């Protein structure tokens, strides 16, 4: 065995070549050069590298109000359910009187039947849509349509003021409407606005002539919904 050890000993190579200690380094090992890392702003790539598109330099999407289609007569419970989940929700109601054969009772009805407004980031929509009773977000051309924050604040202000409020058909100049009460009840024509005055334009097609009569805003309704407006008087 001793002869074998002597024969192998000259062939053994050291694993590391000894390095003489450098001035200022007490250790025999040469320390590796440390390169301090540089903070790169979000969305920017280090010099010479392509930007990382998976982490874009943008803030989270802003919260927006959306109209949700909900189950009939479930507006108020769903408003509460969404608030319980931490979302802002709005389902405004108004008071009206309903007449039965033997009595008249004041009841609450939704201002927007079948809809609840909710404020959320669109990437949070799953947490909204998985609420039982909510069917979908109101969309146009396949894209969710946010509701103006100013419109929501206007509704909130009216409700907070406890003003008398009721649903109203969304009419605009150029719409065909019907007069619902008074001497002109039943007449249909085109709605026209001149400054603060509303007029109903009645035409005679064969003569291509028209006349316009002044009307009150609270006594007209859209054609096709004769009972949409309950006029006073």
Question: What does it look like?
Answer:
The chain is α+β, with helices and mostly antiparallel strands. Among the domains are: 97 residues, 2-Layer Sandwich (Alpha-Beta Plaits), CATH 3.30.70.940; 47 residues. It is built from 4 helices and 14 strands. The strands form 4 sheets. Strands 1, 2, 5, 6 and 9 form a 5-stranded antiparallel beta sheet that branches. A 5-stranded antiparallel beta sheet has the order 13-12-11-10-14, with no helix packed on it. A hairpin with a 4-residue loop joins β3 and β4. The N terminus and C terminus are likely disordered.
Strand residues, percent: 25-35%
The low-pLDDT segments are 1-8, 40-60, 226-233
**Helix-strand category:** alpha+beta
Question: What global shape is seen?
Answer: globular
Mean pLDDT: 75
Helix fraction, binned, reads 10-25%
Task: Spell the H/E element sequence.
Answer: HEHEEEEHEEEEHEEEEE
Main sheet makeup: 5 strands, antiparallel
Q: What CATH architecture of the domain at 64-160 would you give?
A: 2-Layer Sandwich
The total strand number stands at: 14
Integer-rounded radius of gyration: 37 Å
CATH superfamily of the domain at 64-160: NusG, N-terminal domain
Distance between the termini: 125 Å
Q: Might you state the CATH topology name of the domain at 64-160?
A: Alpha-Beta Plaits
Q: Count of helical segments?
A: 4
CATH class of the domain at 64-160: Alpha Beta
């Amino acid at each position: 065995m001793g002869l074998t050890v002597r024969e192998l000993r000259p062939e053994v190579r050291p694993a590391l070549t000894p390095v003489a200690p450098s001035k200022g380094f007490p250790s025999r090992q040469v320390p590796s050069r440390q390169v301090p890392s540089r903070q790169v702003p979000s969305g920017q790539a280090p010099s010479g590298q392509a930007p990382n598109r998976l982490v874009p330099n943008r803030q989270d999407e802003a919260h927006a109000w959306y109209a949700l289609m909900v189950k009939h007569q479930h507006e108020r419970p769903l408003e509460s359910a969404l608030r319980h989940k931490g979302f802002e929700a709005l389902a405004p109601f108004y008071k009206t009187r309903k007449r039965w054969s033997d009595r008249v009772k004041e009841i609450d009805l939704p201002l927007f039947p079948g809809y609840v407004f909710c404020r959320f980031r669109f990437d949070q929509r799953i947490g909204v849509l998985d609420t039982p009773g909510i069917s979908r977000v109101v969309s146009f051309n396949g894209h969710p349509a946010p509701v103006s924050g100013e419109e929501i604040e206007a509704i909130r202000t009216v409700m907070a003021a406890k003003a008398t409020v009721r649903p109203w058909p969304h009419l605009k100049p150029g719409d065909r409407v019907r007069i619902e009460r008074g001497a002109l009840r039943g007449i249909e024509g085109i709605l026209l606005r001149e400054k603060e005055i509303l007029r109903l334009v009645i035409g005679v097609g064969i003569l291509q002539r028209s006349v316009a009569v002044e009307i009150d805003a609270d006594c007209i309704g859209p054609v096709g919904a004769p009972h949409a407006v309950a006029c006073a008087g």
